[in-house]
Fold these 2 entries.
Entry 1:
Amino acid sequence: MHVESHAQQRTGMAQSVLHEIVRGLTDLADNGTPSAIDLRSLPMTEGDRHELQEALGRGEVSATLDMAGKSDIWETRHAGVWWVRHMGSGDRIASETIEITAIPDILMAHRDDIRAASARLSADLAAAPSEPV
């Protein structure tokens, strides 16, 4: 009899998360309602986590942010399903969510940041010598 190591045991949690993702995708497609699943709050084993990662895969879009710790964001191979992982001290996972949305909020520029960028670029242009086009 083969016994799975504790790290590879699966509890069925990955399948539950996948069903929740399907419901979230339906809500997003039908109503534009985004949702998120906090993976750190679930009793997932390493085997469950591996199963979920295998089922979702990786898509074409990913980003790494370095602000108050490293964050990795990638769209899975299923459009609108994003894996968002924030690292804390010691490079340990501080938070991890599956976000069901067109684009995660963390990747969207904040309106105040856009205003500040406009002001900086405008000031740079005003200070630059004029050159004929």
Entry 2:
Amino acid sequence: MAWGDGGSGAPRKRRRLSRSGEFDRVYREGRSHANRYLVVYSFPRVGDHSQPRLGISVGRKVGGAVDRNRVKRLLREAFWKVAGTLPDGHDFVIVARPDAGLLAAEQDEEGISRALREVLHQAGLARGGAG
């Protein structure tokens, strides 16, 4: 049984981007949308209609390691809450801008979630009532 498969015995398909080539493709060929806190890159995978996949980039300007890891965790949680409203077969990379660290410190999960929903709706990527 693979770790993280929920006990079903079948390995769960990877829902995140981990290789630099995967990030590069999304940056190079995808579309970007931004607000004050986040930049979201989206790239449709041709012929693949599985769940969206996520990559996160949080640079040192956001803060120290503890702050960066907290922002990454909040972004993952916020993304998977709205993933059902996003188009299948897409790769997403979320880049946290320096102000995202301040937003996380001041407004915690709700602030990060609101910023992510805002940029996804402005980009026309989210369907339904995720706003």
